[in-house]
Amino acid sequence: MRHTNKLFILLICLLPFTWGSYSSAQELPDIGDSSARSLSPQQEREIGEAFMQALRQTSTLSHDPLINDYIESLGYRLVVAAAPRNTDFHFYTLIDPSINAFAVVGGYIVVHSGLILASENESELAAVMGHEIAHITQRHVARMIEQVMQMTLPSIAAIAAAIALGSQGQGDASMALMTAMSGGMIQKTLNFSRSNEREADRVGIETLYQADLDPNGVPVFFERLQKATRFYGQPLEFLSTHPVTQERIADSRNRAEQYPIKPYRNNPYFYLMQARTFIEQNDPQYSLDYYENALKEDKNHPPKEALQYGYAMALLKNNQLDAARQQLSGLLEAQPNQIPFIITQTDIEQAAGKSKEALSILEGALVLNPGNHALSMQYARIALAADKYKESEAILAQQVRQRPSDPVGYQLLSQVQARLGDECRAYQSRGEVYYLNGNLPMATRQFKRALNACQQAENAYQTAIVEARIEKLENQQSQGKKKRR
């Protein structure tokens, strides 16, 4: 899967005309004429939302609640330490083997699965996430957009064309187009300045320390990436957007060494999530071969527990259920309340046709962990497959209220509501899926079907909700058409 260039989507969103597959993305707020010098917080949020909608259309975001919960938890831990003002943060995992992460205005941070796998411990992963958070808190991304807003339309279109050529593998043509344009303006726009990178390093290192994570994760990770670049003979994706020099490594090391030395314990949960990420990113047979060989090598890193867990999941993916159950049993005996182990245990039981047993296990786990997102979604999914629609609907309704920007929750909820014969709500949930995925025309169509179903059911309350939703969607589309004229 090709990585979607974030600036390409951004520029397409800013252009006053549609472009290819991005034409159905949510319309951006009216950001005014080119004399505007700054974005309002509301404009930043709406640009970030539009970006995520476009990203969902073109790329694969992780649907694993455990991975997403972990990245969110680590991200919020860093955000608390960074103490930002007036910015809500949102964290996502992109299934992409490249080692990268990026930030978008509105507090959107996207972490590539390749970055999770390349990190040797939680502090290294947090080093990159803290760096991206700093790009938001220091308004580096917002200022880049404000630079774009100052450009003429032909300049913006030229940048978009250059990036499009590059994303299609036509690097020479892309560079020729960039070179043909004046004064180095393009390169200045495409990359953060060195001063921004240094500032993000400084703020990121401070954030790691305040979050009780190892600030040396920054220079150590940079140094390993640079060595990997020499080994592979070409820059890794993270280095193409965040150039790392010996000077920058030395500077980050000097900064990290200024903080008091403390013992830092590697978080074992990080390695469990690393194993889940590996399974989600790779095909079943490759995963099975990898974990079989890794266990034979008997290395201490990553911990054996994580290798055993990865092996159990790989066996499950290859439908070797008895072997998977046996591999997992020792882990459950040692840690019976470890949520990732419980999730995989219930996956095995469901695959074996024992949905009743799986739901019973999950009910017990939810007593100990009430409202846990991963356990709740697992329960709802298995209950749906077991035709327990009411139970599934109740738990999904709670989850979408707590996570209104998660299309997966709405997708499952629409299926449950359809099975229950509740067309009024089923069409509403489906409309939210289309909206979150950036397809406003299809979202409007679903809500109009919902309106008809609600009216036929004589449900005045839901009818009023749907009418308001349709009005908002039609206003968004009308504003978008005006801006394209």
Key attributes of the depicted protein:
three-stranded mixed sheet; mainly alpha; 70% helix; 3 strands; 485 residues; disordered N terminus
Can you put this structure into words, describing what you see?
The chain is mainly alpha-helical. The chain has a domain of 252 residues. Helix content is 70%, strand content 3%. The chain is built from 25 helices and three strands. Strands 1-3-2 form a three-stranded mixed sheet. It starts with 5 loop residues before the first helix and ends with a helix. The N terminus is likely disordered.
Q: How do you describe this structure in short?
A:
With 485 residues, the protein is an all-alpha fold.
Write the SSE topology.
Blueprint: H1 6-14, H2 41-58, H3 65-82, E1 90-94, E2 101-104, E3 108-112, H4 113-118, H5 122-137, H6 140-150, H7 153-167, H8 171-180, H9 185-190, H10 194-210, H11 217-232, H12 237-241, H13 246-257, H14 268-281, H15 284-297, H16 304-317, H17 321-334, H18 339-351, H19 355-368, H20 373-385, H21 389-402, H22 407-419, H23 423-436, H24 440-456, H25 460-484
Parallel strand pairs: 1-3
Antiparallel strand pairs: 2-3
Helix pairs in contact: 1-2, 1-7, 3-5, 3-10, 5-10, 5-11, 7-8, 10-13, 11-13, 14-16, 15-16, 16-17, 16-18, 17-18, 18-19, 18-20, 19-20, 20-21, 20-22, 21-22, 22-23, 23-24, 24-25
